[in-house]
Design goal:
globular; 4 helices; about 120 residues
Length: about 120
């Protein structure tokens, strides 16, 4: 849900999931430290999972997290045949596409947690 007090658009979870896979690999490649790329994956995947949970519920969040992790793992197998970057692009497309279909394009579930910060309403 959008915050009524903050008009800035939020990136979709599809973009968040796909970008974190691509950026995680890019960081690991650029630094030579796989753990640094893993931190990017962990943060991006964690943020996406929280938003999936709030918007679409626990079942969708767990399912999309499994797709995200499966795409990450699958990219390692796929890279043997097509190369690293095409495998990462495919994984990002799979994770992003699944997030769009299962969460982003649907209306928020009833009772979804709003992103409104009520602790600052009416205060200076």
């Amino acid at each position: 849900m959008r915050n009524a007090l903050d008009p800035r658009p939020r990136p979709t979870t599809a973009a968040l999931a796909a970008a974190s896979l691509v950026l995680g690999f890019a960081v690991a490649e650029a630094t030579g430290v796989r753990a640094a790329g893993g931190v990017v994956l962990l943060v991006g995947g964690g943020l996406a999972a929280v938003r999936w949970w709030r918007r679409s519920g626990p079942v969708t969040a767990v399912g999309l997290t499994a797709v995200y992790l499966g795409a990450f793992a699958g990219s390692h197998v796929l890279a043997r045949g097509v190369g690293a970057w095409p495998a990462v692009a495919t994984a990002a497309a799979v994770a992003g596409g699944a997030a769009y279909v299962a969460s982003d394009r649907r209306p928020p579930r009833p009772g979804a947690v709003a992103a409104v910060r009520t602790d600052r309403v009416g205060t200076r």
